[in-house]
Amino acid sequence: MNLVSIRVITHDVARLVAFYEQVTGVSATWWTPEFAELATESGTLALASDRTVALFGADSAQSAANRTVITEFRVADVDAEYQRLTSLGGEFVQQPTTMPWGNRSLLFRDPDGNLINFFTPVTPEAVQRQER
């Protein structure tokens, strides 16, 4: 089994796609006006309109209601990303901090309030974990 993508449901797909394109530097592929994907080497971030929820079952998902999932991106230099993102005026939850498990992490929110973690492994153990 392989994890292929994470799908975020939103009321404003264009706004969220523009945000993720700006913060990741990845261009989205639009499959329909209601659905786009940002593909990276290791997985895909899918963004879909809340109008698509009915296809999965009425009220099976709700936009802008996530308080449990953190979408994570490994970056080369989390401190440089913090400087870049600061100029974009994002909502930061945590400035770059070295976590007990050896990653230097930066937490911020997308326009719907979903948490995003940009991180860089900084200890030898964390680097080794990421090489698997």
How does this model look, in words?
The protein has helices spanning about 15-25, 80-85, 125-130; strands at about 5-10, 30, 35-40, 45-50, 70-75, 90-100, 105-110, 115-120. By secondary structure, it is of the alpha/beta class. It folds into two domains: about 1-50, Signal recognition particle alu RNA binding heterodimer, srp9/1; about 65-130, 2,3-Dihydroxybiphenyl 1,2-Dioxygenase, domain 1, CATH 3.10.180.10. A four-stranded mixed β-sheet has the order 1-4-3-2, covered by helices on one side. The two termini are about 15 Å apart. The model has no long low-confidence stretch (mean pLDDT about 90).
Fourth CATH level, the homologous superfamily of the largest domain: 2,3-Dihydroxybiphenyl 1,2-Dioxygenase, domain 1
Q: How does CATH name the architecture of the largest domain?
A: Roll
What's the Cα radius of gyration? 15 Å
- In helices, the fraction of residues equals 10-25%
Straight-line distance between termini: 16 Å
Q: Please, how many domains?
A: 2
Kindly identify the CATH topology of the largest domain: 2,3-Dihydroxybiphenyl 1,2-Dioxygenase, domain 1
Main sheet attributes: strand count, strand direction, barrel closure? 4 strands, mixed
Low-confidence stretches: none
What percent strand?
A: 35-45%
> What is the 3D shape?
globular
Mean pLDDT, rounded to whole units? Answer: 92
CATH class of the largest domain: Alpha Beta
Strands, total number: 8
Write a short abstract of this structure.
This protein is an alpha/beta fold and 132 residues long.
